[in-house]
């Protein structure tokens, strides 16, 4: 649909202000997005859930194109939780296939460096393989990094980080008592799925739900939260611009 000239002028005004904020270093380095509302978006049209999931997958490439002009370094997209994997129904089967196709198509564009975050061992082999292949195919790409959070849960991530640290230290010959005396926040940081990346400055959740549901629990302790009423397939460019504008107006205190 062609935008009304006044509406487009409004978008350009928002963009201009945000580009100035980018040049001043006032925009987030890392944005996390909870892609919520696919099913409800489809239901509003009387369509099956799979239709909403397909449209949500199509939105991802468009969204990443919106992100690029603003110099953002990392985007983490939460597409499927560990709790979702406990369901056994056709919708989950369809969704897993849609995610596999979406990841494969994103990798084929070779626009962004992709990284799988989550318990990929819990995923169907075809999807786990697609995620691994996407990482390999895009590993040399510079610029925007995109974390694909599939089979992801915040508690699971922290648990996995602690286990990884303990196993590494015990392998070196340390006792559990010795490890308990010296373990530090930085030790957990180094073993998270997002190790080496900046912590999320802004977390956006679509669909009007006002909770983070365990998304980036450790990394997001100081994240600014933005809740948007639009369902993910209906999330617009102007919605994204408004989220960034809202971020620039906040005073970040980092718990101080």
Can you describe this structure?
By secondary structure, the protein is α/β, with parallel strands linked by helices. It has a single domain, classed as Undecaprenyl pyrophosphate synthetase, CATH 3.40.1180.10. Helices cover 47% and strands 13% of the residues. The protein contains nine helices and six strands; from the N terminus they run αβααβαβαβαααββα. A six-stranded parallel beta sheet has the order 3-4-2-1-5-6, with helices on both faces. α1 (5-23) runs parallel beside α9, α3 (49-67) packs parallel to α4 and α4 packs parallel to α5 (125-138). The longest helix has 20 residues, at 90-109. The termini are far apart.
Question: Notable features of this structure?
Answer:
6-stranded parallel β-sheet, single chain, Undecaprenyl pyrophosphate synthetase, 256 residues, 6 strands
In short, what is this structure?
The chain is of the alpha/beta class and about 260 residues long. The protein contains 9 helices and 6 strands; from the N terminus they run αβααβαβαβαααββα.
Structural class: alpha/beta
**Which band does the percent of strand residues land in?**
5-15%
Shape: globular
State the name of the first-level CATH class: Alpha Beta
Radius of gyration: 19 Å
Rounded to the nearest angstrom, the distance between the terminal CA atoms is 46 Å
The helix fraction, in percent, is 40-55%
